[in-house]
Each structure stands twice: as structure tokens, then as C-alpha cells.
Specification:
Helix content: 55-70%
Order of helices and strands: HHHHH
Largest sheet: none
Number of strands: 0
Shape: globular
Distance between the termini: 33 Å
Number of helices: 5
Oligomer: single chain
């Protein structure tokens, strides 16, 4: 699993919705939407954001949808943050795992050792 690639649909949706204010966005964060998930991921990766994070996010926010260079710069900045904090990538991957588990409504989910169903 390439976590940086996996977060891109969420973080770009959040940037498209909120622009450069995405790191300060607090309303709707409890909502279970792609935009809210992307905002939470960006806030976890960049915190309140330094000048470089705001610059990269601003570049994506101001880009046309087919402008891949801005998105590549964002992905690169996310990878750089993952490299500087090895635990961060695992935390964000866990956020995505919860998204995957939470997005299915296919019946009972049983976890743990020795559980019996039936």
C-alpha cells in the first residue's frame, strides 16, 4: 500500500473544497465525507502548516483539475513528511483503514481471537 497515493483523492478533494484554508477548517470534520477525511489527513500530516505546506496547498488549490504538477508537489510534500516522521505514515494508513472498514455496510464484522459466529 502506497499511503501517499492512497490519500491523494481525499486530500485533493479537501483542497478543492476549502482551498488554502483547509488546514484551519474545523467544521464538518466529524462528517464522514471524502472532503472531511481529506481535511483530517492534511491536518494530521501538516498540522497548522508552515509556509511550505501552505504554498503547496495553494498551488493545488489554484491549479486546473488536469494540472498534475501541483498534485505531484503535494504528494512529494506528503512523502517528505512521512520520511521525517516514520510513525506518521502508519497513523495516516490507519486513518485510511478505518475509512475502508467504515465504508462498507455488508453485515457483521467480527474481530479478535477465538470469536465464534453462528
Amino acid at each position: 500500500m502506497d499511503t501517499a497515493d492512497d490519500v491523494m483523492p481525499f486530500v485533493t478533494a479537501a483542497i478543492d473544497a476549502y482551498g488554502t484554508g483547509v488546514l484551519a477548517k474545523t467544521s464538518e470534520l466529524a462528517a464522514d465525507t471524502e472532503v472531511a477525511r481529506g481535511s483530517r489527513i492534511l491536518q494530521r500530516v501538516f498540522g497548522r502548516g508552515d509556509a511550505r505546506a501552505h504554498q503547496v496547498i495553494g498551488r493545488v488549490a489554484g491549479a486546473k483539475p488536469d494540472d498534475e504538477s501541483g498534485r505531484a508537489a503535494l504528494r512529494g510534500a506528503i512523502i517528505e513528511e512521512f520520511r521525517s516522521d516514520p510513525l506518521l505514515r502508519r497513523e495516516v494508513a490507519a486513518m485510511l483503514s478505518r475509512v475502508v472498514l467504515g465504508s462498507h455496510d455488508s453485515g457483521m464484522i467480527v474481530t479478535g481471537d477465538g470469536n465464534r459466529v453462528g
